[in-house]
Structure formats: C-alpha cells, structure tokens
Amino acid sequence: MALVKVLKLLPDEYIRSELPRVLQIVCNLLRMRLQRIRDDARKVLAGMAAELGPAYLTFVIQVLKTSLPLRGFTAHVLGYTFHDVLHAVAPAAQEAPGCLDACVPAMVPIIEGDLFTDIADAKEASAFSSSYKESKRCKAYESYRILASLIRVEDTLPRLLEIVWERLPMASTPKLRSKISLLLQHASKGVVENPSATNDNVSEMVYGLLAPVAEEEDARRRLAN
Question: Closest Cα to residue 197, out of 86, 104, 97?
Fold first, then answer.
C-alpha cells in the first residue's frame, strides 16, 4: 500500500502508466496454488483498490481479468477476488453514485461467468468444490447486490439487469429459475440501498423493461384468439 500512496502523489498520467505494472505483480500471485499466498495477495489487492478509489477501479479490473482468465482454476479465483475488490471500493463509491457506471461492461462478464458457464457447473460439483476455498462459495450474487447499490438507477441498472432479461426465455429448468430469482432478489436489495434510487425513477425503469414484454404477450394472445 505504501507504493500506491507514493503513486498517488504523482501526476495522473504517471499513475496511469505505472499502475498496471504494479497491479500485475500482485495479481500474478493470485495464480499460485498455495492458498495462503492467494489470500494474502487478495487482501493486498483489495487494500490497493480501496486506497486508489473508484476512479482507478477500471485499471484493477482490467489487470485482474488479464491475470486470471475466465476458465478453470483461475475463473473461480477471479470471481472471488472481484467481490473482495468491489467490496473494498464500495464505501468510497457510495458517496458518489454512478462513479462505477463506466466499469459495468467490464464487471458483468465476471458475474455471468461465475453463474452461467461451465465454471458454475464445476463449482457446483461436490468433489471439485471441496478442493480450494474459492470454489466452495459463489460470491456473484453479493457482487451483484453491491453493484446495484452503487450504479445510477436510470442510466445503468437496466444494463445490469440484462443478465436476467436475456435468460428469461430459457428459464425452463429449476436451477436456472432459482439463479434468476436470486439475482433479482439481490438486485432489489441493492436498489433499496442505492442513494440514486427514487420511487419515480425505479417505477419508470421497471415500466420501460416490462412494457415491451407485456405488449408482446398481448399480441400473442390476440393471435391465439
């Protein structure tokens, strides 16, 4: 953290040129098989992210995704670490609603990968999930709640809800329906905590999302009759 504090004293252009290299050193440790090393590296990375603040979260996420590809062992470490980093930045981001909006496109695939890919299937396999800490618990739902509490409701929450919306037509299995239901529950909890949320903008957003679905359903009923 001392190095990060020194970097913050430099002009912004120097921070942006040197920061990826510094972050890469820590993120590379997250690839190690020894649990203690990963835990220590994760703690340091979360501390660095908190010290840097929301303005530099994009850099942290980019280096994290580069160091931990969304496949195999590293995918589980990625989702677990992403939550801890997001949680560390949340207190500062709460004071400036919408400051994380630009990061959402980079963060959504991490949540999706943790829930809806073969990575999720591996996490749910009992033999695999007992092998190391990051595979024993899915933190994607909690990450989703934190994001919903920090982004601007009218501008970015619909983008976050696309994770759910895109999968509704395929929600024919109990497992997928359960995941979608849990995501919506966590999103609603986040919105309740979101300082940018008002009765008006939440109602307008919900109406904007549901109106096309209702119109399509009405059209189908008219054709059926």
Answer: 97
Please list, in sequence order, all residues whose beta carbon lies within 8 angstroms of the beta carbon of residue 167, skipping any fewer than 6 positions away. Answer: 116, 176, 180
174 burial class (0-12, 13-18, 19+ CB within 10 angstroms)?
exposed
Model confidence, pTM: 0.85
Question: 68, 53, 65, 75: which is closest to 4 by C-alpha?
Answer: 53
Q: Is 64 in a helix, a strand, or coil? A: helix
Please write the tens of the pLDDT for every residue from 56-95. Answer: 999 899 999 999 988 888 888 999 999 999 999 999 999 8
Closest CA to 82 of 66, 98, 61: 61
Q: Which residues of 137-167 are buried (b: 16+ CB within 10 A; e: fewer)?
A: ebbbbbbbbbbbbbbbbbebbeebbebbeeb
Candidates 44, 49, 50; CA nearest to 60 is: 49
Q: What is the pLDDT of residues 100-153, one digit of tens each?
A: 999 999 999 999 988 987 766 665 554 445 578 888 888 999 999 999 999 988
For residues 65 and 108, the answer to whether their CB atoms sit within 8 Å is no
Please tell me the distance from the alpha carbon of residue 123 to that of residue 120, in angstroms, as a whole number: 5
| Residue carrying structure tokens 């800490």 | 133
Report residue 47 CA to chain centroid gap: 18
Distance CA 181, CA 74 (A): 27
